[in-house]
């Protein structure tokens, strides 16, 4: 599992690793530059004109080493030196000395920054790294503003965009990267949705620091990747039958909002549930039976909403239940949720309107337990815990909420965060902007419910569900881009198993 370590700990981590391995700091910087170049060569052509902007600290040293290595591989490289190189770090100074004489290196002063025009295809930002602790100003700010204004240029940040603090929210301006290539692990602030316009697409490259060493600096924050979820999946045999794959119920829907529960149930079936049923008001029975003939349908007595009157004894036969999509928040829905908590104590996913009811009926929070997974989006979460000034505060409150109520909280969004009662937080690496579409959250509810019904632990069901949901979204959007809708994500779920090589 890949640790996410605070920027304040990185300097000590590097120093300890260098001492433990008996290597020089320059060797570690060289490893980082080689890893970056290995990624870069797969993305960019040698006829691209590449400008590398280097500061006088270690991030600039990374940029200078990258420039040297790419130039030797035949790339058209220009290095721009930004800052006071009389105060350069030792490794930055050494990498400047190692630049080949024929590699153009231009020292930028204030006047150059104001007036120079850049004819580049690719800009690599290596001006400032994780040590930033105040807003950009002076010639660095002018430079970054000018680079941000370049059009039709691909922008790549080395480790972290210049100006972005590693552990806090941004104040002021920062480099607006299309891609950020982070070394060994993503920095904490790269997980914040407020920083999406600056981070762009995130890639993490291995620079040779092994996981056992990283774990010594663990802060209980992890970056969820493919290799972390594959082994969490349950294997079934050729003798497995419908019952082994679980019986799940999706409860919700109301007049005019029946699609949400249909998508949840279909997602559960596509994820592998042996049987999926929907509990809906009477107005939804025919809709679900026609739209999703593979699902069973249970009817509440109410015409338009769920309420206390429903086949209550039938809840016991389900291995897991997802509640909330399209349910509404009126008095009937409140009555249903109160009764549901009283009658069902198995694994459950609480989503959408069920979360909004919890926010209004605070006494129901005491019904949450270790079998509960809450899946709020940012606004639903703030209805539960109050307004937050930034995402760092949300993440903190999510951890506190999870510990207090002993439940798992899935805070949905870019790099969805899963908080566990023991204080661990996992940040997802899959998904993209094209999943920002109505119904995508209902699909996630069905997927996690399905894994719970198949016998996965609550932890594994949640991690596998979140990761595979994002992966299905990536697959669905390959050709449809911003035209992707929630049912496209549902249909891509089977392909996600093929990508993970899970039978």
Automatic annotation (TrEMBL):
(6S)-NADPHX binds at residues 58-62, 129-135, 159, 260, 326, 377, 442. GO terms for molecular function: ADP-dependent NAD(P)H-hydrate dehydratase activity; ATP binding; metal ion binding; NAD(P)HX epimerase activity. Its cofactor is Mg(2+); K(+). Its EC number is 4.2.1.136, 5.1.99.6. K(+) binds at residues 59, 125, 162. This is Bifunctional NAD(P)H-hydrate repair enzyme. GO terms for biological process: metabolite repair; nicotinamide nucleotide metabolic process. Keywords: ATP-binding, Isomerase, Lyase, Metal-binding, Multifunctional enzyme, NAD, NADP, Nucleotide-binding, Potassium. It comes from Echinicola strongylocentroti.
